[in-house]
Amino acid sequence: MEHFQQVEPFDYVIFGATGDLTMRKLLPALYNRLRMGQIPDDARIIGASRTELDREAYVARARDALKRFLPSDILSPELVERFLALLNYVPLDSSRQSEQWDSLTSLFTKAQPDRVRVFYFATAPQLYGSICENLHRYGLITANSRVVLEKPIGTDMATATAINDGVGQYFPEKQIYRIDHYLGKETVQNVLALRFANPLMNAAWSGEYIESVQITAVETVGVENRAAYYDTSGALRDMIQNHLLQVLCLVAMEAPDSLEADAVRNAKLAVLKALRPITDATAATETVRAQYTAGMVDGKNVPGYLEELGKPSATETYAAIRAWVDTPRWKKVPFYIRTAKRSGKKVSEIVVTFRPSATTMFGTTPARNRLVLRIQPNEGLDLRLNVKNPALDVFNLLPANLDTSIRMEGGLPFPDSYERLLLDAVRGDPVLFIRRDEVEAAWHWAEPILEAWKHDKTPMQTYSAGSYGPEQATQLLASHGDTWHEASE
Fold first, then answer.
1. Of these residues, 136, 181, 243, 444, which one is catalytic?
2. What are the angstrom distances between the C-alpha of 250 and each of 3, 81, 177, 186?
3. Residue 181 falls in the annotated catalytic set
4. Nearest by Cα to 435 from 66, 47, 124, 164
5. pTM exceeding the 0.85 threshold for the entire prediction
C-alpha cells in the first residue's frame, strides 16, 4: 500500500529531546512508523537537549518511554532494538552559541549533502528564532532541510509575527512545517472524503439543508501540574485558535481543485477570512467563557481551577463561541465551537444538524437528520434518519441511527496523529501543515475576542467539574433554537 511505502533515508533532529512531548508522542510515533516498514534502518534520529546525558543514558530513557506509552503487544524486542539503534544524542542549549554545537555538526560531516534533514522544535516557541539563527550560523541548513514548529505559534498576532519572522529569516516558507496534530487525526482528514467523495453528502452540504454545526473538543482532566503554563494560555489560545478553527475550515471550505498543499490551504484560508468578526459589541452575545470549580469526575472529588493554580486568575478553562462564516454557502448557519477542561466526558466530535423536513404527510414534523463525526474516542460516524416505527400499525416515525465505526485492517489501533505528520515532513508534503497566512488569519479573528475578554465584555462564568459547562453556554444555543449534542441524545 502506498501509505506504507518506505521514505528515503533522513536525519531527524529533535530539539527538546528529553521533554514530555518527545517521550510521550514523538518517539512512540517514529517507532510505529519503523514497525510499519516506513523508516529505513540507515535513518538517524538525533536528540538535542540541555540535559547532560550520554547516548546510552538517552537510549535507556527512550526504551522506558516506549514501554510506558505503547501497548505491549506491539513492542517486539527485535524492533525495539532496531529503533534504538537509530538514536543519537547531543547535550546542547540550542538557543545559545557554544562549543556544544560542534558535537551536532560533527554528526553531519560524512552525510550526503542532499540527505533530508528535519529539525523538529519541541521547545518553547520563543526559542524558535534563536535556534534557527544557530542552525544557520553553524551551517546546518541545506536546500533539503525542513523545520517543524510545534504550536502555539504565538499568543497573539504580534508574537506570532515575531516567531514567523524569526524562522522565516533562515528558512523559506516552503521549508517551514507548522504542525497541528488535529490535522493528523484520521477522522478529521475524513471530513474531506465524506464531503467530496460522496455526492449524497456533497449535495446537502450547505446552509440550504444544514441548520447548525457543532465542533467540540472537551476532556475530563484538569490542568493539574500544568496549571502555571495553562494560565498563560487558556482554552481559546490552547484549542480554538488553532485546532478547532482548522476543523471548522475543513467543514466549511469550498472544494479545492486538488489535494495539492496550496490548493487545500488556499481553501482553508478563504474560510478564515470569511469568519465574521467578533467585537467588543458582540462578544457578550456570541461567546461564553468560564472556569471549573470543585466537583466530581469519574466518581472522584476534584479541586477547582483556582485551587489548583493557587491564586486568582482570569484565564478561562471553558470557551464556547458562535461563529458565522459569511459566504453564500453558509448564510445564516451558526458554527458552535466549544472546548473545556474537567467536562462530564472526554469527546472530540463534529455534529451537523440538518434542517427539518417540510413534509406534513406524517402528521408531525420529522426529527431533524443529524450527522456526528466522532474524532475521538471510537472514531466513526453516526447518521440519524427517520424510519417507520415497526412496533406500531399506524405510520409513526422513529429516529434510527446508522452507526459506522472506522476501523483499521486487521483490527489494528488507529495510528497516532503524529505518525503521518512526522514522515510527511520527511516526504516534503505540507498539505496537513499550517501556512503562515493561515496562522495570521486565525489570530486576526481570535485576538479581538481575547481583547474583549480582557476587558470583561464577556463575564467570567463558573461550572462544576464533571458538568458540561455553564448555563450561559446552553443559553448561547437556545437563543438560536439549538441545543448541545449531549442534551439531545
1. 243
2. 22, 40, 19, 13
3. no
4. 164
5. yes
